[in-house]
Amino acid sequence: MSLWAKAQQLPQDALQEVRSVYGEHFPIEVRHFLSSWIEEKMWTDIEPDNPQYEQYIATLVRSLIQELETKAASLNTDDMFLTKLKLMEAAKNFRQRYTHNPTALFRIIRHCLGTEMKLVAQVENLGGALMSMAGGKVGLISDAVAEIAQHVESLRRRTQETGEDLRKMEQEQEAFAISYHECTKLNAHLQHLATQPQNQQNLDMEKKIRRQKEQQEQLLNHKVAGLMQLRLTLADKLKDTITRLNSLQSRVLDDELIRWKRDQQLAGNGAPFNSNLDSIQEWCESLAELIWLNRQQIKEAERLKQKFALEPPGMQDILPALNSQITQLLSSLVTSTFIIEKQPPQVMKTNTRFTSTVRLLVGGKLNVHMTPPQVKVSIISEAQANALLKSDKMAKNGEASGEILNNTGTMEYHQATRQLSVSFRNMQLKKIKRAEKKGTESVMDEKFSLLFQSQFSVGGGELVFQVWTLSLPVVVIVHGNQEPHAWATVTWDNAFAEPGRVPFAVPDKVPWSQVAEALNVKFRSATGRSLTEDNLRFLAEKAFRGGNASGQDYSSLFLSWAQFCKEPLPERNFTFWEWFYAVMKLTREHLKNPWMDGYILGFVRKRQAEEMLANCASGTFLMRFSDSELGGVTIAWVGDQTEVFMLQPFTSKDFTIRSLADRVSDLQHLLYLYPDISKDQAFSKYYTPFTENQSTSANGYVKPFLVTHVPGWGGPGIGGQTPSHSSVVGVGSNGQSGPGGSYPATPSTIFQAHSPDPSVTRDTPSVASSTNSLSIIMPVIGVVFLICGSYAPGLGQSSVGRTNPDMDYVELMSHGELPSIDENLNLDQFSFSEFIQSYNTKPQ
Hints:
Belongs to the transcription factor STAT family. This protein is 45% helix and 14% strand.
């Protein structure tokens, strides 16, 4: 059943709340007639503050308007005439209001859908499930929703009671005043009679008046006692209400809002974030309303008390203390609900645009938007953040640790969503001041924070609040090569920050189980699939430098920050984190689909790969991440003699030239993905389509393509040897790399190969697969023309490697002495090596 169908079946009070969120800004008729279309678009999956969605949102809103106009045009019956006019008017208004601001309409629709989700979930799952805003899926949240709603309703009833008590007290005081006035009149009459002659009539009158006076005085005494009891009862009720308000506010702010902030921080590491901020805002608004009403009641009680100044001996007046407590509650609520809805990037590069959004959850209820407050953003150091928390005073001008452009904005109230917020869309960090480093500290260890600060008044200027909030820790970089270490700092902080910490203290050691969870969350978010227990065990061995140790339980061991990202791995010039980050980046950018399909084992050591392949058929292969090369993936395969070979690792640079799937297809000796999956079954859907007839581009050139080829395997064949997705012709050599090393899979340029860094120790001598051995095919007027690299150092017995590296094919042709080629030559049997050798041995 659709969300809209469920919403229409809600109880009357809930249905009325649904109707209340719709209006001229987004008519409920539009929701009704476009219900399926609206729900199919997954509005809740998109972040309106993210610039990358701006174009998508604009297109979505245009499509909505077109869909609305189409629907209106289809309503041709008489009974739908008024509805048709309503839809046409809505489409017109949308064009006028939102064409240049589509995000505003997007926010309105998302808020409406969120309200429906919440109410439907509350009715369907009173036991404690709330529909998540993330993709319309249902995420379980605690029973806090129902409990908090009950507490709010109970406090509303109590506030109504004390309101009635106040009105009753005022009436009683007015009645007392009247009775007191009557008593004074009787007293004055008695005084007057005392001056009159003492005749029987006057004596009877005096007796009667004295009797009335006694009755009136008894009534006054009774009223005084009643008033005093009312005062005491009211004060006790107000005191109890404040205690309950304090308890509820503590639960909302210290539990729910803090949990939301913690979830937001974990989302920085990639954890799912089912934001319930709209629900928290409703609770905070209810608290603000109740606190404000009770504060007004306390002030009214003080006014009534001053009007009837009666202080019995020994009775303590608690109203001033209650007023102070309730005002402090309001202050705490306002300052705590000034929050960062969208955090700035935690790895921030100078001179790069970034965004952030700040929101005041109680702004609408307290009418703060009547005088829209300004918000200023600055960047402060960890030491400055500590000083700020200790003094609880906002930073003065000139105390920032850097310069941010476009760092001021005005909060705006969005009527449809009842949100008071400001989005900073074009901030840019121009300068940064760094602290002096000690010991092994680096600039990527240093944490900063963005300070958002504002000032506003409530109650017509009666109360003025200075508010501020700090962003999650930010690491500032100036170059992309600083990014991995910066993300190490951020990941460790996000994962292991403790509640109520001093900014931005984190433990130096944490249990491996927590590290494993953080790495798993990070990897799953980046690549789409979680790490397995075997993957995590592999990572534990690497992090703890355990070598090939097996069976050891790492869960209770503590991993230090130094082991995580400071100390290089044994015989390597990079750290554990750098290795993990490079693998994650490679998988995210180039291997995501095969990884999600489970076709890349990845986290397997060389010896383990050899053991796994030892009993497999020839041509069986698997893919593992290289231990020796950052961000490298190598192919291990079984040769004809059941010997296991390791192909030199491919890196991101290789995959930007040719994808993993295409490279696997090129290498025809690779037949079965471990354990026995046909490689075409696993990878064919990722092959790049290829057609024989390549059209000539506008500039007259024909674009060539590259094919992966391993020396010693023979070239990719023609006809029956051709991979199903491409037609390739290759010429190779029968050599292999020497035992001392191998050559990179991607040269610095296609024309100039480079040798490996001798300082880098590889995990195994590898078979080279590079552009040195890549064939290029170009159809030129029906003739297949081959271009092969003439420089192939280190390829064993390759005769190509023995030719003059400075002599290319054109130069050979210029000699005019090349051997003639038989017109009937079978290219399948053609050997370029023999061809060159015959040229070299020809008598000069």
